[in-house]
Each structure stands twice: as C-alpha cells, then as structure tokens.
Amino acid sequence: xxxxxxxxxxxxxxxxxxxxxxxxxxxxxxxxxxxxxxxxxxxxxxxxxxxxxxxxxxxxxxxxxxxxxxxxxxxxxxxxxxxxxxxxxxxxxxxxxxxxxxxxxxxxxxxxxxxxxxxxxxxxxxxxxxxxxxxxxxxxxxxxxxxxxxxxxxxxxxxxxxxxxxxxxxxxxxxxxxxxxxxxxxxxxxxxxxxxxxxxxxxxxxxxxxxxxxxxxxxxxxxxxxxxxxxxxxxxxxxxxxxxxxxxxxxxxxxxxxxxxxxxxxxxxxxxxxxxxxxxxxxxxxxxxxxxxxxxxxxxxxxxxxxxxxxxxxxxxxxxxxxxxxxxxxxxxxxxxxxxxxxxxxxxxxxxxxxxxxxxxxxxxxxxxxxxxxxxxxxxxxxxxxxxxxxx
Length: 392
Prior knowledge:
Shape: globular
Mean pLDDT: 83
Largest sheet: 5 strands, antiparallel
Radius of gyration: 26 Å
Helix content: 10-25%
Number of domains: 3
Low-confidence stretches: 69-76, 306-326
C-alpha cells in the first residue's frame, strides 16, 4: 500500500525563502502533479537563524480551503512577514571611554608597525577603534544613522593574529555590561562610512581586514560582515543602490558567489573578486588566508601614492646625487597593453597587473595579482616607473 502523503517537502532544489530571502527554502510538492503547492508553502533549512515553516495545512486553513479538496488554483497570498525587532543601542559615554589606551592595544600597535603611525591614527579615527579594560580591541558596529548597535571585543597578539589562549575568542560589549533585555541587531562594521555616497563599497569578512584594506586601497569604502555567514540580506539592506565588490577569504569564493546572487536585488551592481582565491597557496587556503594577509606583504605606498601636482613659480631643485638607474624601477607591457609590475621589489614573487599604463598612473582600477612563474615577459616592452612619483 502506498502510504505517501499528498504533500511532501521536495527532495531536490531550493528556492528563495520568503522570510530570510536566502536560497534555503524547500517547497512542499503535490505528489499527484509534481508541482509546488505555493511559492510560500515550505520550510527554510536555516532552522536556528530563520525557522520559517509554512505547512500545507496552515496554508489551507488561512485560505479557507478544505484540506481534502483538490486545489484548482493557488491564490497568491503572501503570509504576513515577521516584524523586524527594534535594536537596542550602546550609550555614547561607554563608547567614548573606549577611545583611548592605544599604547596597550596590540592590534593598534601592530598596525603602526605595518602602515605607520599616521595611517594608523587615521584608521583608528575612521572606524572608531576602541580599547577594552583588558586591552582588547573593540570593533564598534555603528549604523548609517550613527547609532551604536554594539561592540565586538577581540584579543590580539603582537603579530596581529588573534590570541588562541583567550576564551571565549569574541566578547560582546552588551554582554559584558550585562544590559538586561538587550536586543542585538547587528549591522556591517564600518556602515557609518556609507554616508560617503561617491565611493564603491568593498566587503570582507573580518574587521581587521577592512581596516588594513582601507589604508592600502582608500578608493573604496571597506566594510566587514564579521564572518562568512555574516553576509546576509538583513545586514546589507543599507547597500541599496550601491556598487559593491566582495572579497571573500580563501575557500569562500563559491559560497560568496551564491550570496552575491541574493544581494543583486539590493545593490546597483555586485561582483566577487577571486584575488585571494587564486593568490593563496594550498597551505594558505587551509589557514584561512584573507585580503589583509596578502596586502601586508607590500608597502601601502605601492598602492596609494599618487603623482603630486606641480606648483607654479618654484625654485628648481638641485639634482640629487643618485644614479639615474636607481630612480627607476622596471615594469613590462604586453602586446595588448597590459602592465606587469614585479612585486614586492626585493623578493619579486608576484606580478601586480594593471590593464594599461593609464590605469596604473591614475590608479583608476583595482590591480590583479598573479604568481611570478605564471608570466613570460619575453618579448614584452620594458618601461620604467619613476620612484619619485610612482608613475610611468
């Protein structure tokens, strides 16, 4: 005897969940026709984070249809969405008290060694990096309205990596303060920077990576979603109408491509960079290689120094007592105009690639990076970078 139910969850394929808007929704199928009962009738696989489940029985009851009666058509009735919770906020005085103690903040001291004191100072001010009572780094989540959602506290070692001897590895400010009935609704780290409407937006996983990338590549607004699962519709609604580039960690490229599809309904444009996916070695893939790991191999000046405008009526400088060849650095141009710059200058393990000399001089596009062994410069035109202006 066939005991199969008339309606069952589909065994293959997933749709967009009506609640969380992720492609994790399993539809109920009419076993007699093989067709979905309705686009809202099904169950979200994200049981802990979403929990949406709209059964055939509930659907029939909501639409006054007999459960045993054959459905000739399915009216397009969308269930009432769950109301969004009203977020709680951290008091501004608590936030302000954290903006000090940087001499004991291991991450800030690490940044000083990597990018210099002035660039670090600007990054600290840009992202309002704080210091906790136990010298941890506080990453404040400040929304586009300037309200403080919460702060994430992480302990770092002097090498810029998270300390593995600290448990738990992440502590939330609202938890430490024991604020009763606190409603946490997270936002993107750096969201307050979106008030600048001119720049493209770049998103990475970790807060540290966003801060470092903002020094190397300031032509973007760098935001962090707080982990591979932190990139979701709810956090990204603030990106409506923006041009966005995603920079996933090694091993997350395919996963973030799927996430990008869900975000296309919000963003003006969205793309996923394979920079880290292709640059990382097998060992680095296993270690969770990310954008900051790659960038700190170079000096920020390689990315950020622009040609200085000439001033009128200036006294000619005395010629420097340096051989001309030491003022120049070799690069190579392929037959179709692509520029290859050996980097870093000392080790030369990689080529920094620009689509043209003009794109390099203007820094109008983000470069790509390929391994040194993958490029044959035989027959390419040699050009020279002026080390005073970093232009060709």
